[in-house]
Amino acid sequence: MTSVQCLLSEAARLWPEAPALIDAGASHSLSFRALDERVQALCDRLAWPGLNQAIDPHAAQNRLVLLECHTRVSDLVVILALIRAGWICVPTSFRHTDRQLQTLVRTLRPALLVSERPLAVGCRLCHPVALEQGPALGRAANQHTFDADQPVTGFFTSGSNGTPKLALHSYSAHRASAAASRQRLPLRPGDRNLMSLPLFHIGGLAPVFRNLLAGSTMVFGGRADDASFLHQQQISHLSFVSAQLRALIAQKPQGLRIPYALVGGGPIDPALLESAQRAGIEGWQSYGLTEMSSQVATGSPAGYWQVLPGNELRLDADGAILVRGATSFLGYWRNGRLDRSCFLPSGWFATKDLGTWHDAVLSIHGRLDNLFISGGENIQPEEIELELLRHPAVERVLVCSVADVKFGRRPIALVELHSGSRVSSSELNRWLAANLPRFKLPQQWWQLPNRPEFTGTGLKINRTAVQTWVDQQAHRLTPLA
């Protein structure tokens, strides 16, 4: 069976004294050797008797560890140690309520929950500090090579109904993703990569593997939209969603130079990338998904796209994107086992993203499951949102639909304006009418409510949560002035 090497072990051998990470908040750093030793020390506390036996990826029930995760150095150490000790690490958001966390435990039935909360849960509970300071159980429980089909991580991803699905990944897929990304966005010793996305998302953990492979430095403790921090720490690589990039540009940074800023999370306005370039930020568009270990294709600042080496992308007859390749996940964890029924023949995975590929340009139009029909016409909410985000007064926007006797469904817009900005719904409709047909213009305009469940555990607005709330609580919306 094919096996792959542990990237941290390799990095500690190749660049033992080079800085693996900088914790800007705590003003200290760790070399690759020191990080490897700290991970190994924790790994020795995670020994389990069956580690040296043959591991069946279809019988991983007792190897799931649910980790309540921030984006801190200590969280990264736990993740790397769990992987090396043979567990399947499932990072989840610290923003979950107690009830949500307890529901996850009941659903997954993990062997261990690592959390700072004193919860009554149906599995062993361990505080992360106690985990790292507990007694060593021996040095047998560690892996420096991993079987190609051995699951090592699990990440939650939501389907069209908003129900979280747990996608399991092999170490081989993580390593392949890191190697392929590096071919498109060069990364080398001396570069500094801000850990700007949450470690409980695939887009937050993927840079860890990239930096371990390249010998570059991970920087913790700063924000992607903090211009002074980026300049002070000499950040060369980071990842954004559009809202973060807009916030950074709004600061009018002086002397900033970021050659590799990966921008993803949805359709990107080309004008935003042009503004970023004028501010010294080279924006590289990213199309990716949890099921493909992060990136699938990357668009250069000049607008030319390439599928990452080792992956394939094609469109079906309806314009939906299909993907497969070396970075593919193993399948979903369902009912205590690995379920691979999500794959089409020949290993293709249907993303449910709609797109076009023409003259080396990949355009993502939105999710197939977001599309709705109004009076017989197809409406893709993301198309309307992208046009609205080009308006200088609009900070964030989400287009939903409401029931209509005559048309079935009609679009409405929930808008958040930039601080100090004022704009009327009639002006925004005129803005849209310049580029969109009349049937796509929102029939109602409301302020986007500031509710925690709308952002959920990530940086993007949770469309399913907003649509459900609108369906049930539309009378509580505040009109856009």
From TrEMBL:
Keywords carried by this UniProt record: Ligase
Domain of life of the source: Bacteria
GO terms, biological process: fatty acid metabolic process
Domain annotation AMP-binding enzyme C-terminal: ranges: 383-446
Residue intervals passing through the bilayer: none
AMP-dependent synthetase/ligase domain residues: 9-333
Enzyme class: ligase
Keyword Ligase: yes
EC number(s) reported in the record: 6.2.1.26
InterPro entries in UniProt: AMP-bd_C, AMP-bd_C_sf, AMP-dep_synth/lig_dom, ANL_N_sf
An annotated Gene Ontology molecular function: o-succinylbenzoate-CoA ligase activity
PANTHER family tied to this protein: 2-SUCCINYLBENZOATE--COA LIGASE, CHLOROPLASTIC_PEROXISOMAL (PTHR43201:SF32), ACYL-COA SYNTHETASE (PTHR43201)
Name of protein: O-succinylbenzoic acid--CoA ligase
Gene: menE
